[in-house]
Amino acid sequence: MNIVVCLKQVPDTNEVKIDPKTGTLIREGVPSIINPDDKNALEEALVIREKEGGKVTVISMGPPQAEVALREALAMGADEAILISDRAFAGADTCATAYALSGALKELDYDVIFAGRQAIDGDTAQVGPEIAEFLQIPQVTYVEEVNVEGGKLKVKKAWEDGYETVTVGTPVLLTAIKELNKPRYMHMKNIFKIFKQDVKVWHADDIDVDKSLLGLSGSPTRVRRSATKEAKGQGEIVNKPYKEAVTYALSKLKEKHLI
Fold first, then answer.
1. Which of 89, 153, 161, 200 is the most exposed place for a label (fewest CB within 10 A)?
2. Residue 25 has pLDDT above 70, yes or no
3. What pLDDT digit, counting tens, does each position of 152-163 carry?
């Protein structure tokens, strides 16, 4: 079974800061990581390959530095890595990103495409489903369990109040959540090999796309600014019997016109 995993290199959100003057992210000096949900997607692809055979290819759209994330994926056990990188992709929103990735995916032979549910630097959960739409293939999102049965996939899809079991054929796109598995660490023997292994780099001219639909010009949405949440004020601890404490709390809420 041939599986392609879409990965994104993202800034570690524990280290992200926002410029108070411009409202934009300060990326300088911020470490980058593989998006967590994408690691779950990669782990599941590797598990399926180990059981069913086949090949796992990882693909990412980003600047040249995104090659680091792809090499980490190779060290985890992926067979092949492809980076699509071009100035034409700059400023892409989720729609333009999905369009570019779908153009690259059309060049590959796949049965299953895995992606993370969402990226921690955007939290839109849109790219995976949009890729499926551009490729006109079925999709199952919020996947927390996958089993291969008779050439089809039996997938457990999470809902807020339960789950749904879906049986689907291939080709199909699945988006992974953290409950799906626990990603493995990089393997020592692979770490030494990855520096000799090529990461293919594809440019806009190498994929099946309309360049007018790429990057900023092909993005129907714009981010005007980013902002941090206001810090919470100092709390107050009330040491009173519970009835008096409730009365006191209600009086404070009334003072602030919250009730």
1. 161
2. no
3. 999 999 998 899
